[in-house]
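Justification of resources, computational component.

The compute hours requested in this renewal are based largely on the per-chain cost of generating structure records like the one below. Each record pairs the submitted sequence with a full structure-token output. That output is archived, and it is also reused by downstream analysis tasks.
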Amino acid sequence: MSKNCGKRFINGVTNYEEYIDNRKENSIYLSKKAIVMQMLEKKERGEEITLVDQMMLVQCIQVSKLTGKLDGYYAISTSVMMNPICQERARKDGCICKECYAAACLNRYGSLCMALEINHLILNNFLISAEAWATLMIPSTNGKARIEAHGDTASATCAINYVRIIKTHSFLEFGVWTKNLNHYRVAFNKEGKPANCKFIYSSMEINAPSVVPADMVEYVDHVFTVYTKEYAIEHHIHINCGRYDGNLEMIDQKCRSCMRCYTAGTEFFINELLK
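The structure output for this chain reads:
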């Protein structure tokens, strides 16, 4: 049972169904963790991770149903808590990572935190074949899916796995957001960029769009930057992530009603207001 669930139960919130649901989630987590640890030990011994092994790992991957701005989308993500790049940037003044919503989300939802831990271990430690990834079930209500809704790609191994997932699910259109171009430089050089992928370079700094390196220009579909309201007004920045009125008061910011990031021929620079 998760610590939070136990606290709620002990403190008199006797929602027994919720208690049982959390125990079930923890049971699933422990089963998946046992499989992953077994495969990590096998890898450490220098033994082959067979196709059957890879398929077992694929079945441990959690595809998350998103809410809020991303309501209606499903995503494959890893743990921001286990990503040293994210942790380092979160301490840097002026970096958007210092405003990280994913860390707060994982602190709040223990079951999500556990699921993304499993995803992180698999995606960053095992180079899984396209044949195995083809067995992954990715739900969709709109023909779209997202890579990394709760963090960022932590390694080239993870990036290659994501590229293989995207290619083996050609019936879906994927959006990939990252600040870590180096990992995708390796992945795209090895695997090529999938045709069913919109690749978005997320700017590191608030109020400052990142410059795309010359060797990645052919791959980047959009640059995504977050601005403060004050800076956007003073510098006449067009906020086009969602819909706003003339005073930059939000009307709607659902991805499914915007679709700029997923649509060819839209603005190269996608600009969002800092929440």
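Residues 16-44 form the longest helix (29 residues). The first strand starts at residue 64 and ends at 65.
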